Task: inverse folding
């Protein structure tokens, strides 16, 4: 409830417009009927092109608070709900253009930067595959280095 109250106090106009446009809901009515959990669900699932997300990502105070938190270096990821066939094709084209640019730079004698593919959604299967690879890697490492890695002096 506290988080919802904060969001509505800070970004209420944008939230009100998004709820009306996307879900045909009235923020005031939903609030009065104490549908707070549902409101948070709706707000948390607003797409990146919503007015709320625009207001949030334009908020300097929010940006500083995010930077102050101790985050791991996470690669950006797209939400599966925003991963349409069109976005998938455009992402592949973007990666191909980046690879081609690297090849042209290399052919001209330059040093191309590291290729970083455009973000894609990460599914539970992707995360499970990564965990499985890490487990396999750690088991192999334990077999090869039973007493831990040798210290180089």
Result:
């Amino acid at each position: 409830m506290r988080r919802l109250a904060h969001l509505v106090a800070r970004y209420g106009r944008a939230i009100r417009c998004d709820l009306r446009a996307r879900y045909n809901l009235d923020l005031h009515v939903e609030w009065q009927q104490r549908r707070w959990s549902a409101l948070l669900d709706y707000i948390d699932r607003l797409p990146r092109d919503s007015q709320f997300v625009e207001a949030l990502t334009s908020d300097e105070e929010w940006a500083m608070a995010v930077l102050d938190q101790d985050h791991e270096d996470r690669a950006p990821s797209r939400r599966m709900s925003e991963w349409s066939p069109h976005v998938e094709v455009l992402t592949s084209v973007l990666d191909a253009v980046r690879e081609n640019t690297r090849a042209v730079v290399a052919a001209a004698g330059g040093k191309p930067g590291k290729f970083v593919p455009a973000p894609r959604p990460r599914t539970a299967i992707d995360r499970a595959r990564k965990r499985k690879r890490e487990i396999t890697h750690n088991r192999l490492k334990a077999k090869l280095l039973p007493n831990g890695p040798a210290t180089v002096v």
